[in-house]
Amino acid sequence: MGQQHISLHDVLGAIAADLALVGLDFDAGVLDLARDEWIAGKPSAVADGFPRSGFVMVLRGLQTLLDTDAEGTPSAVSIADIASEWAMDELGHGWPELADSEGDFVCLLQPAAGNSGPVWAGGGVSVPLGSLSTVPLVRASASDDAAPSDD
Amino acid sequence: MNTVSAVRRVAAVIVGALLATMTLGGCASVEVSPPISSCHSYKAPSSYGSFTIQQAATGRAIQWGAYPNASYSGTLYVVDVYVNGKRYDAKSQTYAPHGSVSAATAAKNSGKIMNVSGYVTYGKQVVLEFSMQCRIM
Fold this sequence. Notes:
The complex is a heterodimer.
Chain A (H helix, E strand, L loop, with lengths): L7 H13 L7 E5 L4 E4 L14 E5 L2 E4 L10 H16 L5 E3 L5 E4 L1 E5 L2 E6 L2 E4 L23
Antiparallel strand pairs in A: 1-2, 1-3, 3-4, 5-6, 7-8, 8-9
Chain B lengths: L10 E4 L5 E5 L3 E5 L8 E3 L5 E7 L6 E7 L7 E8 L2 E8 L4 E4 L1 H6 L4 E10 L2 E11 L2
Parallel strand pairs in B: 1-11
Antiparallel strand pairs in B: 2-3, 4-5, 5-6, 6-9, 7-8, 7-10, 10-11
């Protein structure tokens, strides 16, 4: 209801902007399995065995089948969910973690379908993907922020 | 630091597909595998590490993890995840793998089989192979 369509490139760009806040390079690609065509990102080898329809997101060594939305396009929530899991692995802690005014942990924000597009939501907060800079987040110590792996 | 002995051991963790041989009536034998259990709270009976799959309820997302013991940790972890025989996820990474299957996919495949299998290498040597499967709620 009232869901605003946001292009795949905008979704990827928004998530990349959020991940850049913690120093991560969101170098993702999306393959359209039906057309065998990359619709975002850099082409790379994709493992055999995926269905002949749908979309696969490739992020470093990860290849994951994406959920699709009502229009049959890759689900932004699904992409953000994978990005969040990847970020947690890279950082060694939860991401994105909402903080209170003291900087203390409130909750882990989760991707969700908002009325006007995909959002990070939790703890009474709901912000569009790409807008994490507008909410207080738990700041990890410098030593906790891992550099992106180059595998 | 974890070390692996010079003579690499390849340990196979075959979970949910452990074949047993039964003799029926003294004249017939069949190979059977144990019933495939629900993904609700699947834990491999393994001494090689922690291999688990969890699904809180029907239609909910599924979480899985494969965490080998230190003796079987490696430098590369390769995993394939299949849902109802179709590839859902493929990982090749330098740390112990975990992941999830979305609620939407789980709901569409209720009653179908999920399989997570992979291997761990240390250098060029395979030190562990594993496979687990369960029935999606």
